[in-house]
Amino acid sequence: MGNxxxxxxxxxxxxxxxxxxxxxxxxxxxxxxxxxxxVLCNIDKTHEFVDTTDVFLLLHRDSVHPLNKPIKxxxxxxxxxxxxxxxxxxxxxxxxxxxxxxxLDILQRNPVFRIITQTNMHYYVDAELGLMSxxxxxxxxxPVLSGYLPDTLVQAFRQGxxxxxxxxxxxxxxxxxxxxxxxxxxxxxxxLFVQIYINKNYEFELVPRVGNQIIILGKLENYSYKMKKxxxxxxxxxxxxxxxxYREINLKYSNQVxxxx
Length: 261
Prior knowledge:
elongated; about 35% helix; 3-stranded mixed beta sheet; alpha/beta; 2 domains
């Protein structure tokens, strides 16, 4: 008697499982035949290099725009790759919900400064220290690195060579970018400086956002030590004597900061 009840209960469970599998299979088939009825594009607002129209143009260009296509025909990886091919886009996450809506979550690249070479070629350098073009309607509000910057260094950097050292120069593109990145990641310097300028002697100067001062850094060697000296002047000396009284602050010399009126 006990075995009979066990067998009946087992058959019920097996039947229930088969029923659920059948229902799930039916639901899955119905969903796969469902068409993508909407595409929602969510782009981060840190910058405005691309908008929804730009993204849809990319998808149309690559013939992967999903609207009104059956879900079973969609290749989400292809859609992601199409979006991420755009130079200003860092990452794209693509997923479908149960209602046939395709979601595009897009993260743009974050430029930290702008490069202008000797021949007036313009580039951004992003937070991952990679180059990107500036040919967009939108302009990022970031510090500028300009002056006597050879195009050869920048082109070599674009091709993956960031350690090229030209005759007559004692810095590489990697060292320049590391210095600019150092400025960006210091809260005081990021707010204070709007320009890094390379003069005709290939020395580095810093231009503050406010006032007519010039900070002469000189060579890039030991720049973190020089900037610590400058921070001490801004934090300790200038509150007492006033920063507007000086037109030039020279950091080139060891163990001293020379302020000229």
